Each structure stands twice: as structure tokens, then as C-alpha cells.
């Protein structure tokens, strides 16, 4: 869906394999990870990670799938390694996902009381106990599957929250559409026991909005009053000398820190609001200018509903126990920034993808999502869909069209969209003062598969003469040029969502990734004319199929052409 332009990814396959493949490309680039793994209820299926498989078993299952097309096994309570198997599955994935997090990125994991304590220990080991956010968990009041009728009714679940580096975690503004919204906050209050009276020295150079003058005594009246110890002298719109003011300061520590800070220092209050400047009003009351911040999510989340079933039904879809999109939207809004990447490698019905698109529509952000889901058939699905991955992809399509339609309906002075909502003329709205860009509701679908290269099991001395013809081309016969292109992108660590354009040059198909970032041609019998044209464009990288050179002399000629016309190009052959 909008394959050429979208920055979103949907990956079908084992999420352990996907995380391994994403390591180099997205190392340290993901702002937020949210996952909703199986809860280990005894009826769940978990990923089977057999790292000790025999060679024959590995080779016979090179596609890494069972007869039903998946790698999941039932984990019943009768299993002697019931907890250990589930935790081993989670540990491998959590270790890998930490690598793709930004230094200030956050990983959020939904779970219930069955494995919460054990999973917390795993996360403590991977992230470090000191990187727990607010002791490591939030409570979602789900009330969706109460248990324990003879003792305590369970109506909540947990969301474990860990940062890669808790000291670098930052948040967006509360109203994300207003990136630099300033407001003024008072620095005095009626004198009460809650804010005892104290004296604070205001240095010279504090800006004043009032006229130049010298004041003594006090400012204000009644209980809202500040006493001047000595005199307050204003010259050229600034305090001419240090002055001591006595008042009942509600933010005493932040005020002292702000008055003594250096140019590059930043001061925040307890609500996460940045203090920009302390100054004096026209009546010489001290006041602070702040950037409006975001209130932290409370440890108990009780305003997001208890199931996402109605969300799916509104799109004409069904799936068992989906999370409500209101819950994931709250997390995305809180823990991601407007230009960040959000990863969910237990994508399920793709609630996270829809939430990212909706928050982008709300605040004009450019967040990107990466969904990973095994094409699982263990869930009971409608006849319309064969796998859970099919449900997730269709949800993104339907939700995307709905979100795009809602976005257009909010735009002023614009005619209703006609035809394809994703057409170029419908993706931008011209207004009197600006151009508003529609949210990205497309996605590229990639699938985890075995290598594109042919499997070779023979030692050189075991190869017979009549087998040599099978080794003239090292690419599997059923692989397309697009398959090879994405292998190259992964190998080189190139962003998998960069724009891709195709051109025909010298009767051969050539891919250009992000303009001149990469040029690739996998057609056979490439010519010098083609190579010269590519070299003149000076791509950063160029890749060809090894069998496409024809012979060794042609390969040498191509290398020399690039050295002459584009010496900075990095060459590679498959």
C-alpha cells in the first residue's frame, strides 16, 4: 500500500529472525518499542527457538517452518519447563530489541501476573535495574478477564517500562502541534505553611518589562506580597544590581537553579516543563516563562477501556483479545516523538500501527512504524483470512483509509477527495497560509525467508563434472530482482523504507534507492553502455548480479569504468 513513498514496514516472519536482520539497519534508531507477547496462560503458543538442532534437521527445515507454516508450539502447564521455555523465548528477543533502541528510547511490555515477576527479572538483567521507569511498571485497569472468585478478583494487567538510558529519556510537548508553546507561571504565592517565606537573591541583568526606576519596601499587597530587602533598581530594562527578594516561593529549588544557571544549562519543574527565563513584569513581580510540558502518565491507567474488540469490529474485523487502541495511543503519544520510529514485534492485529497513524493525524507528526508478525494460524480467524498477519495487514489498510478520510474532513476550505485517497493530488491540502501534508498510512510488506543464494552442501572434491552447470549462477531460480535488492539493503544496513525508483537503461531494469544512494541491476548480460550511464550518475553504491557480467574480463572492465568515471562508488556483486 503506497509502496513507493511510505516509510512504514510490515514484516512477516519469526520475530527473532526479523530482529537479527534489523540490527545493523536500525541500530540505535528506534524511540519506542511496545509488545504484547503471549501471556503464558497454558493455552498460548510460543516461539520455538531450538538453537541445538542437528545439521540434518536444520537443512531439512531451511525455511524454518513446521508443516503448518509456523514455528510456534503449545506451552501447556504440564510442561516441566513451563516458565523457563516462555522466559527463554522472551529473553532472546528482549536482548536484541535493546540494541535497536535509541539511547533515550523506551521498551514497553504488556503482561499479567503469571509472568510479571519473572519478566521483570529478565528486563532488569537486559536493561539494568536502574533503567526502570517509575519502578518498572504501570497498571492498566483492564477488567477484561477477572479471575479468583474465591479470593481476589483480578481486573488489571501490567505494562513493564524500561529505558535504554533513563537519564536521556525525553518527552514531547503536551500539545504536540505547538512545538514551542510558551506560557508564564507565577513565582509567588499567598504565604502559607506549604511554602515558607525565604529570601532569594536575583542577580543583575534580569529583564524587566517595567519602566526604569528604583523601588523599596514591597511589591504587591495583602497576602500576595514580596518584600524587597534593600532596593530594586531598574536601568535600561534590566536589574542594575543584585537584589534580595523575600517571598513564599512555590518552586524555590527550580528558581534558585534557574537564576544561577549557565547559558547551556536547562531547568525543568516537577511536571517536566522547561524553564526558559525568569523576568520581572511591568509591575515588577518576578515571573517565569516556560515551554508547556507533558504530564507523565499515571501509574494506573483506567481510562482506555478494557478491550480492542470494538475497534476491530468498527473496521469489519475480528481477533481475540486485542488491546484497545486508546491504550496504545496514550503510550505512543507519551513515549515517542513526532519524528521517531515505533517498533512492535508481536504485532498481532496491528493495534500499534493504527495508533501510530492516528497520533500522527492528531499532532501532524511523522512517526514511522515497524510491525513484525509470524503468519500464525493458531488463532481462530474468519474465513476471509488465512493467518494473523493477513488480519494485521488488512487492519492497517482499512484503518489507514478511515484515518485519511477523517484527516481530510477536518481540513478547512477543501473539496471532498475524489478517487484514490492515496493519489498525489489528494495527499496535500493547499490552504491560504500553508500546505498540510496527510499522514503516512501506507506500508511496505517484507517477508522473512531463507537465503537468496543457492545452498551448496558439497566439498570441492565431491563435486562431479556433470554438476558444474548447476553452479554457474549462485542465485536461487525462484528469486526476483526485488528479493535481491532488499537483501542488499539489509547487508549494507540501508534504511528499508527509502524511496525506490525503477528505470530502464540499455534495455535493463535498474533500481535507484533514495536517488543516488544505491544503484542496482540484477539482469543478465549487462553492457558497458549501461555501466557507463550508471557511473556518470555517481551513485554512492552500485551492485550487480555476479552471473550478469558474462565473463571475468567484463567484470574487470566494469570495475575500471567506475574507477575512471565514479571512483567514490562502492561496488558489490551477488
How does the SSE layout of this entry go?
Layout: E1 9-12, H1 15-22, E2 30-35, E3 45-47, H2 55-60, E4 72-74, H3 82-100, E5 101-111, H4 116-127, E6 132-140, E7 157-163, E8 182-186, E9 198-202, E10 213-221, E11 224-235, E12 238-239, E13 243-247, H5 252-260, E14 267-268, E15 274-280, E16 286-291, E17 300-301, H6 309-313, H7 325-335, E18 341-344, H8 351-363, E19 368-373, H9 388-410, E20 428-430, E21 435-437, E22 444-447, H10 481-492, E23 500-505, E24 508-513, E25 518-521, H11 528-536, E26 541-544, H12 552-565, E27 570-573
Parallel strand pairs: 1-19, 1-22, 2-5, 2-18, 6-17, 18-19, 25-26, 26-27
Antiparallel strand pairs: 3-4, 5-7, 6-7, 8-16, 9-13, 10-11, 11-12, 11-13, 14-15, 15-16, 20-21, 23-24, 24-25
Radius of gyration: 30 Å
The CATH architecture designation of the largest domain is: 3-Layer(aba) Sandwich
Instruction: State the fourth-level CATH superfamily of the largest domain.
Output: Vaccinia Virus protein VP39
Q: Outline the biggest β-sheet.
A: 9 strands, mixed
What is the typical, i.e. mean, pLDDT?
81
Query: How would you classify the helix and strand content by structural class?
Result: alpha/beta
Amino- and carboxy-terminal Cα gap? 29 Å
Portion in helices: 10-25%
Give the percentage of residues in beta strands: 15-25%
Specify the overall morphology. Answer: globular
CATH topology of the largest domain: Rossmann fold
CATH hierarchy class name of the largest domain: Alpha Beta
Number of strand segments: 27
